[in-house]
Design a protein that fits this description.
The complex is a heterodimer of chains A (about 300) and B (about 325). Chain A is built from 15 helices and no strands. With about 300 residues, chain A is mainly alpha-helical. Chain B is globular and about 80 Å long. The two termini of chain B are about 25 Å apart. In chain B, helix 3 packs antiparallel against helix 10, helix 10 packs antiparallel against helix 13 (about 265-295) and helix 12 (about 250-260) runs antiparallel to helix 13 (about 265-295). Chain B has a two-stranded antiparallel ribbon. In chain B, a hairpin with a 5-residue loop joins strand 1 and strand 2 (about 50). Chain B is mainly α and about 325 residues long. Classes of the chains: A mainly alpha (about 300), B mainly alpha (about 325). At the A-B interface, helix 1, helix 2, helix 5, helix 6 and helix 7 of A face helix 1, helix 3, helix 4, helix 5 and helix 7 of B.
């Protein structure tokens, strides 16, 4: 902290004096500082990346050096042994994420659109209900949701997690859609209605395409949310349908002394989101910021 | 609102039925259930005994619960300063003209917030590890400790533990807040900053008197996100310490989980859930009120007061003129 203050004061002095040399030095300092920050952010990825190619013995000798004889045997062993559940959990997570995100997008669009455009008696009460749903701290629901789900016989099914994921993410998503729909002029739908277009048709074939940007944002926010969610998967799901964070937790419980193996497992389970992130980083950052500020 | 071509109630009902029913079932039914079960003495199994407010009395005297509440508050304060504060400084640096490769810094900085808290927890477990951890390795390299074995077992230090579990949180979200604040700073008109520069404001003055007031609302959003996020801290702690050693890193959600699923007291666990619900709402609501109070300055408040007074006067004048009920 102190060093940054110094940097800034230096920045001030140099800028005001306006010397070219001062600016170059300052530029170097600021750039180096920012590079240290960014590299510290992806450093674990790099460290884990090359360390996962080592063997346990090799790693314990020197934790930082590059692998002397890199091999993919850690990955092979993890993927070929069904007891570790890493491969199957990735399938489970993929399924859960895709279905939940699809459900969230569809429900958020329908509910958000109707709340924004239709006046009916229950409009305000429903709006308030979803608003309250956004304020509820989800972790206070952990215990009761377990009780309710076990009563209803909903535990340990492939669809168990869809419901909490849909419902906890619905409020933010639908308010994003609602705000967006309010910015679309109603004249569009009125013109369609005069031409004989039904309500459902105007909703899906006129408004839906216009809402594409906001629905993409909703989908992006929720892909990460659903893939990474841990606490509800922990209490509601058994071994057969466990998602990635859960499998990882069990796996590392068994191998907490074999770091390279742990790293390989973590990298494997992180890979889909990491690739997704680095390919679409611009849109993702934009979407997440929009979601955070408006939600 | 579409008033001229409003669809039939039946259509609206059909569309809303499933989402709303699901939402009530997964959010509001458990909430009511928690309240209901919190009045029972219930350990896993069929026997439930109604015991009135006993759970709440027990909770009120429960040292561990209040310690975990304090830990949550510690996390909130530490992370507001750490995440939002450092993010603001980083934004000031990155928005300087001298810094190159802004896109890369943004992409890399944002990256940790997209991986799961479980992974973050494991990464930091590996960093803090005594014999194979990076932290002790680093201390050996700079000569602070002779070898890894003599280094401290970091996660066994009760005094340091809260600090050690909050550092990963700060690390994970600094980039996230940096990007949010950066987007707010980018929307500031450059002319404002340039004219300030011409008037002779230096970097710190510009940051304090021009940028800060202009991005106030975004900063408030960040602080609110930070408070809400840290009141529900769970994943990191679960992976790294499970609340230990002893209870020195217990947080509320972790305590609720332990009571309900490890020791099996579902009745008392429900009671803790209700307490988490109430306390979180109080903290979030209270901090909102405080922030609003301190961020709207004297001038704004006077203005609002005067406006209200004027409105009252007008209504009173109108009433006097047209008599009671004449104001339509």
């Amino acid at each position: 902290m102190a060093s940054e203050k110094i940097l800034e004061t230096q920045a001030v002095k140099n800028e005001s004096s306006g010397t070219k040399a001062g600016n170059t030095i300052l530029g170097i300092i600021l750039n180096v500082f920012m590079w240290i920050f960014s590299l510290s952010c992806i450093f674990p990825l790099i460290w884990m990346g090359y360390s996962s190619l080592k063997q346990k013995r090799d790693f314990n000798k020197d934790i930082f050096s590059l692998p002397s004889e890199p091999s993919l045997s850690n990955y092979q062993r993890i993927l070929s042994n069904p007891d570790y559940n890493i491969a199957s959990s990735m399938i489970n997570s993929t399924r859960t994420t895709i279905i939940s995100v699809a459900l969230i997008v569809v429900c958020a669009f329908i509910v958000g659109y109707i709340l924004a455009r239709c006046s009916f008696k229950m409009n305000r009460p429903l709006y308030l209900m979803f608003l309250m749903g956004m304020l509820i701290p989800v972790h206070s629901l952990m215990v009761p949701i377990y009780i309710i789900f076990s009563r209803a016989g909903l535990l340990n099914k492939w669809y168990t997690l869809l419901m909490p994921y849909l419902c906890f993410n619905l409020p933010v998503s639908l308010f994003l859609v609602e705000g967006y729909v309010k910015g679309i002029p109603t004249a569009l739908e009125e013109a369609a209605a005069i031409d004989g277009c039904s309500f459902s048709r105007s909703m899906f074939s006129i408004i839906l395409p216009i809402c594409k940007p906001i629905l993409t944002t909703v989908a992006i926010i929720n892909v990460f949310g659903c893939w990474n969610e841990f606490s509800f998967a922990l209490i509601l799901q058994s071994k057969a349908f466990q998602t990635v964070p859960l499998a990882l937790k069990n796996f590392t419980g068994q191998f907490n002394s074999d770091f390279p193996k742990m790293m390989a497992a973590m990298l494997l389970t992180m890979s889909p989101v990491v690739i997704f992130y680095f390919v679409f980083s611009k849109q993702i950052i934009k979407g997440m910021v929009a979601g955070a500020v408006k939600g | 609102m579409l008033n001229s071509i409003r669809p039939k109630n039946r259509v609206i009902f059909g569309y809303l039925l499933i989402p709303v029913a699901l939402f009530i079932f997964t959010v509001f039914v458990p909430l009511v259930a928690a309240l209901f079960y919190s009045f029972y003495d219930w350990k896993v199994g069929p026997n439930k005994i109604f015991n009135g407010l006993e759970n709440y009395v027990k909770l009120f005297h429960d040292e561990v619960f209040w310690a975990s509440f304090r830990h949550n508050i510690f996390l909130v304060v530490f992370c507001i300063v750490g995440q939002v504060g450092i993010a603001f400084i980083l934004v000031m640096i990155i928005s300087s003209k001298l810094v190159k490769a802004k896109g890369i810094h943004r992409t890399f900085g944002f990256f940790p917030s997209t991986i799961s808290a479980v992974c973050i927890g494991f990464i930091w477990l590996m960093i803090y590890d005594q014999r194979k951890g990076l932290l002790n390795w680093f201390l050996v390299q700079i000569g602070k400790i002779p070898n890894m074995k003599s280094g401290p077992v970091w996660l066994n230090e009760p005094e340091l533990i809260m600090l050690l579990v909050s550092i990963p949180l700060v690390w994970q979200y600094v980039g996230y807040y940096m990007v949010i604040i950066l987007s707010a700073v980018a929307s500031i008109d450059t002319e404002v900053l340039e004219s300030a520069e011409i008037d002779g404001a230096n970097g710190i003055q510009r940051a304090r008197y021009i940028v800060l007031p202009l991005i106030k609302s975004t900063l408030l959003v960040c602080v609110t996100l930070c408070i809400a996020g840290n009141m529900k801290a769970f994943d990191n702690i679960f992976v790294m310490t499970k609340g230990g050693p002893g209870y020195s890193s217990m947080v509320m959600a972790m305590y609720g989980y332990k009571t309900s699923f490890e020791t099996g007291y579902l009745g008392y666990g429900s009671c803790i859930s209700v307490a988490i619900f109430v306390l979180s709402l109080i903290v979030i609501g209270g901090s909102q009120a405080l922030l609003n109070h301190f961020t709207t300055d004297e001038y704004d408040r006077n203005e609002a007061k005067q406006a209200k007074q004027r409105q009252k006067d007008m209504i009173a004048a109108a009433k006097a003129k047209y008599g009671k009920g004449g104001l339509r």
